[in-house]
């Protein structure tokens, strides 16, 4: 378009060679040297039509380019986000044990935020400015090729400046992202432990820590601004030299009659614009590169090896009613939390019959919870076989295996939603069944007293119920699921002794024909079990009925019962 305008103005001021000849010829006619004036064709319509066409073309192309840039980058960010979330929710337990929550939140919020907000704009600016510079250099070089000679040292200068600046900006961005993780960690820890912080009057200490971490995370940003200023000053000076070189070479070319004044003006205006574009292109490129750190970090989380839920070759697909009876067989089972860690279970062998009520006890850290986790294939079972109703669970697809067992873990989990949703998320049961489950879990009166009964909302994490009540809701949920095998890992630890005793009796009746494995700290909870497994440092040291175990005066179970009295 600029070329068109220059050509148009040159055709009127005489820069264009034909027009120049016509102007001279007509002057001769006026002075009487020619008998007739030469005909000057009216080119206004031609130029206006061309200019309109070019303008419309530029508008369409710019709109298409902007739309393409926005849509592709949004799509890219969405694809990367979905892949990361998909992978993280499938990551094994070990990943969450070894990765601070703040780091995960930072990737999900900070890095993803860079992909959503910063990268598209900077990428678009870099491409636009880069193309403008290329077109400006080509344009000025066409008008006056001497310009290229002057540009060589300036380009070398730019090359070294951007190299220093980019390396600095990249590292500062990396440090900035690293420094943000403690802020997210502090935030999630503070919210998680709000009541403890207040109870210990530690608000001030935590606020101070938060401020310090925030300050720390802002320092790299300040350095980034400083680096940008450093580069800006140098690029603006170099830009002034570009203008000088372009101006000088085109004026010299104009004075020698090689180009018309219109073209000289065009070359200088391009050179002036180039100064701004040069700064934009270096700054945008450095930001694109720095934001690519976020792309790399998000991509890393998209590659965390996840648990395999789907059916894979060699899998066994058990029948629909599996496990029909609920026998559990452990043969020389050894397990660990990671290949680099020591085993937490060593050669555990036990047979649990269908419908049996089994209690597991042992000292803290003896491996009780780990044993329950092996049934769900949550930890690495590197030796032995666990069979449920004769089916080797290592061959059953994970989703299927986990859907056929029920567990009430140490930390009861309730979801935001109604009580109905929490009891029966898949909406398989009717209200009568839900009320029956609540009755068994000793919660009927509590829910009856609520204004909306089953439709009462449970707040985030079940905060509007006590920990004991949350455990009872989890118990009711397990009743609703009707699994043949129920595992309770200290599921009644936060319930008072009296309610616990009632529950154990109710469970015996309600789960009469089902297998119940109960891990308990309180020996009283499991004293009425059919059988007791006693673990010590990951080994199964006792395995018999409570009565038989109590007959061993130096047995571990006897010692624990005595200690609990
Ligand atoms: N997430 C984990 N990562 C690595 N090691 C773990 C992890 N959880 C537990 N362990 C280790 O495994 C061993 C058995 O722990 P486990 O939680 O199974 O014991 P427990 O008998 O259930 O203890 P408690 O009665 O305190 O719940 C312990 O040595 C413990 O340090």
UniProtKB/TrEMBL annotation:
Q: What residue stretches are annotated with the ABC transmembrane type-1 domain?
A: 1-290
Protein name (Swiss-Prot/TrEMBL): ATP-binding cassette sub-family C member 8-like isoform X1
Keyword Cytoplasm (UniProt): no
Q: Ranges for the ABC transporter domain?
A: 328-562
Record's SMART domains? AAA
Matches recorded under SUPFAM superfamilies: ABC transporter transmembrane region, P-loop containing nucleoside triphosphate hydrolases
Q: Where in the cell is it found?
A: Membrane
Q: Could you tell me the keywords of this UniProt record?
A: ATP-binding, Membrane, Nucleotide-binding, Transmembrane, Transmembrane helix, Transport
- The primary location reported for this protein is membrane
Q: Name one Pfam family in it.
A: ABC_membrane
Q: Where are the transmembrane segments?
A: 48-74, 133-161, 221-245, 251-272
So which domain of life are we looking at?
Eukaryota
Would the keyword Ribonucleoprotein turn up in this protein's UniProt record?
no
Q: InterPro entries from the entry? A: AAA+_ATPase, ABC1_TM_dom, ABC1_TM_sf, ABC_transporter-like_ATP-bd, ABC_transporter-like_CS, ABC_transporter_C-like, P-loop_NTPase
Q: Which GO terms describe its cellular component?
A: membrane
Q: Which GO terms describe its molecular function?
A: ABC-type transporter activity; ATP binding; ATP hydrolysis activity
């Amino acid at each position: 378009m600029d070329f068109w305008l220059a050509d148009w103005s040159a055709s009127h001021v005489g820069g264009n060679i034909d027009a120049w000849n016509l102007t001279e010829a007509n002057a001769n006619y006026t002075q009487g040297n020619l008998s007739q004036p030469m005909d000057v064709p009216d080119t206004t319509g031609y130029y206006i039509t061309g200019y309109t066409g070019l303008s419309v073309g530029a508008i369409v192309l710019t709109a298409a380019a902007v739309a393409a840039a926005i849509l592709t980058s949004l799509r890219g960010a969405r694809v990367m986000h979905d892949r990361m979330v998909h992978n993280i929710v499938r990551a094994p337990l070990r990943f969450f044990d070894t990765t601070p929550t703040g780091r995960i939140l930072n990737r999900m919020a900070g890095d993803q935020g860079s992909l959503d907000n910063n990268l598209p704009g900077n990428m678009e600016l870099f491409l636009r400015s880069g193309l403008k510079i290329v077109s400006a250099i080509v344009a000025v070089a066409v008008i006056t090729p001497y310009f290229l000679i002057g540009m060589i040292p300036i380009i070398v200068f730019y090359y070294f400046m951007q190299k220093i600046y980019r390396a600095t900006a990249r590292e500062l961005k990396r440090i900035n992202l690293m420094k943000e993780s403690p802020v997210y960690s502090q935030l999630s820890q503070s919210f998680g432990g709000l009541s403890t912080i207040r109870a210990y009057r530690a608000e001030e200490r935590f606020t101070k820590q938060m401020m310090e971490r925030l300050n720390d995370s802002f320092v790299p940003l300040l350095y980034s601004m400083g680096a940008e200023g450093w580069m800006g000053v140098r690029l603006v000076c170099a830009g002034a030299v570009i203008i000088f070189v372009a101006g000088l070479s085109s004026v010299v070319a104009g004075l020698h009659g090689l180009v018309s004044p219109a073209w000289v003006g065009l070359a200088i205006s391009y050179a002036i614009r180039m100064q701004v574009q040069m700064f934009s292109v270096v700054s945008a490129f450095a930001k694109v590169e720095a934001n690519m750190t976020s792309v790399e970090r998000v991509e890393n989380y998209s590659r965390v090896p996840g648990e395999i839920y789907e059916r894979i070759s060699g899998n066994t697909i058990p029948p629909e009613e599996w496990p029909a009876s609920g026998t559990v067989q452990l043969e020389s089972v050894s397990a660990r939390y990671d290949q680099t860690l020591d085993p937490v279970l060593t050669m555990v062998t036990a047979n649990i019959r269908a419908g049996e009520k089994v209690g597991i006890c042992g000292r803290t850290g003896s491996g009780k919870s780990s044993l329950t986790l092996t049934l769900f294939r949550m930890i690495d079972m590197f030796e032995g076989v666990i069979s449920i109703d004769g089916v080797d669970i290592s061959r059953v697809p994970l989703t299927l295996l986990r859907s056929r067992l029920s567990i009430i873990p140490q930390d009861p989990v309730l979801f935001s939603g109604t009580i109905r949703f929490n009891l029966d998320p898949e909406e398989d049961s009717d209200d009568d069944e839900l009320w029956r489950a609540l009755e068994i879990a000793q919660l009927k009166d509590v829910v009856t007293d609520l204004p909306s009964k089953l439709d009462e909302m449970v707040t985030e994490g079940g905060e509007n119920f006590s920990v004991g009540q949350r455990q009872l809701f989890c118990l009711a949920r397990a009743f609703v699921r009707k699994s043949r095998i129920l595992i309770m890992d200290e599921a009644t630890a936060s319930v008072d002794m009296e309610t616990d005793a009632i529950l154990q009796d109710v469970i015996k009746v309600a789960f009469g024909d089902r297998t119940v494995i109960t891990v308990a700290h309180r020996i009283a909870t499991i004293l009425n079990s059919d059988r007791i497994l006693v673990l010590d440092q990951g080994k199964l040291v006792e395995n018999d009925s409570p009565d038989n175990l109590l007959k061993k005066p130096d047995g571990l179970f006897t010692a624990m019962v005595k200690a609990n009295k």
